[in-house]
Amino acid sequence: MFKIDNLIVITLITMVFSTFSFAEENSAVALAYKHDSSELQWGPCPAFLGKECKIAVLQGDPAKKNTDVFFKVPAEYDIPYHWHTSAERMVLVSGTMTVKYDNQNEEVLTTGTYAYGPSKHPHRAYCEKGESCVLFIAFEEPIDAFEIMKSTQD
C-alpha cells in the first residue's frame, strides 16, 4: 500500500509542476492589430529601402527568431532588389504589390494574398498605384535585409 501511495503522490507532484511549466511557456499575451491602428509604433526600414518605408513590430524581437511585422510603403513605390537570411511568410493587408523573385515569374499580390519567400532568395517589389501597401511578414530568423546592387542583377 505504501508503494502505491508514493506512486500516486509522485504522479500528482509531477502533474502540478508540469502544469506550472506549461503556464510559464504560454504566459504571452494574446493580441490583435489592424494595419491602420494608432497603437502601432512605426519605425524606419533599412536605409537602402528609403525613408518612406516603415516597419511596425507586432510580436517578438527583431534580433531574435520568430518575429512578426507590418511592412508599409506608399503607392507607386519601388522596393529595391534585396534578400533576407530568413524565409518570409507574408500576407498583403492593403494595396496591390508586384513581386519578382530571381528565376521565377512575377506575381501580383492583392489584398489577402499569401506569399512565401525562401531564405536568401533575391527579390524586388513594387507597390502599385492606388492604396499604400501594407504587408504582414512573419520572419523565422532575426530580421535583416541586404541590398543587391543593380549591376549584379543583370
UniProtKB/TrEMBL annotation:
User: Pfam families recorded for this chain?
Assistant: DUF4437
Q: Which InterPro entries match?
A: DUF4437, RmlC-like_jellyroll, RmlC_Cupin_sf
Q: What is this protein called?
A: Cupin domain-containing protein
Species per Swiss-Prot/TrEMBL record:
Sulfurimonas marina
Q: Which lineage?
A: Bacteria, Pseudomonadati, Campylobacterota, Epsilonproteobacteria, Campylobacterales
